[in-house]
User: Which sequence fits this backbone?
């Protein structure tokens, strides 16, 4: 099975890629994250990921699209929670790319974080899979989150202190929102 693995950042790619390798699956990483603000941070996370992929000899495809106005508008207009827009845009692009380029399935490293809205990511991935006619490869990578953190620290990788958007950058200063929550709250990766 040849999987297009959407990747949000270097540290979050560690466990999913390790796990897929152990399962004998072939994968290519696909970076598309216009949600990362400001642009300097976007560049920094991308550079960290590039270094990690070089180190591991992973194949990486980068889409540097950065529609800032559209992204902020989309997040602000999302009726219930801004992350729904954020997941949809990224997973839709990954599904489209995977379909157009002959992959067998697509997935996302977003599934590794205990701070993300895991069920929403899964649902959105499956919806996008149906829309583009390509399976969403689901695996609960969260059990390997701490292992990924440990490896990233060992390798002295840059670890970002907030999830990505400018709203999450603000939220990290609010103690109430910093409390870790395993399944639904989202603060930082
Ligand atoms: S908190 Fe994270 S997942 Fe949610 S909208 Fe911001 S960048 Fe996207």
Assistant:
């Amino acid at each position: 099975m040849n999987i297009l693995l959407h990747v949000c950042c270097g540290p979050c790619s560690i466990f999913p890629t390790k796990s897929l390798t152990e399962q004998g699956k072939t994968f290519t990483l696909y970076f598309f994250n216009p949600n990362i603000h400001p642009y300097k941070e976007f560049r920094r996370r991308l550079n960290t990921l590039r270094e990690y992929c070089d180190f591991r000899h992973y194949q990486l495809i980068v889409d540097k699209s950065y529609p800032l106005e559209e992204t902020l508008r989309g997040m602000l207009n999302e009726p219930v929670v801004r992350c729904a827009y954020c997941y949809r845009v990224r997973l839709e692009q990954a599904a489209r790319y995977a379909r157009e380029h002959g992959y067998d399935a697509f997935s996302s490293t977003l599934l590794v974080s205990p701070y993300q809205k895991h069920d929403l990511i899964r649902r959105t991935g499956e919806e996008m899979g149906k829309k583009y006619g390509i399976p969403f490869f689901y695996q609960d990578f969260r059990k390997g989150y701490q292992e990924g953190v440990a490896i990233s620290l060992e390798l002295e990788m840059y670890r970002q202190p907030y999830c990505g958007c400018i709203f999450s950058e603000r939220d990290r200063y609010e103690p109430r929102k910093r409390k870790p929550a395993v399944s639904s709250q989202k603060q930082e990766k």
Summary: The chain has a mean pLDDT of 93.
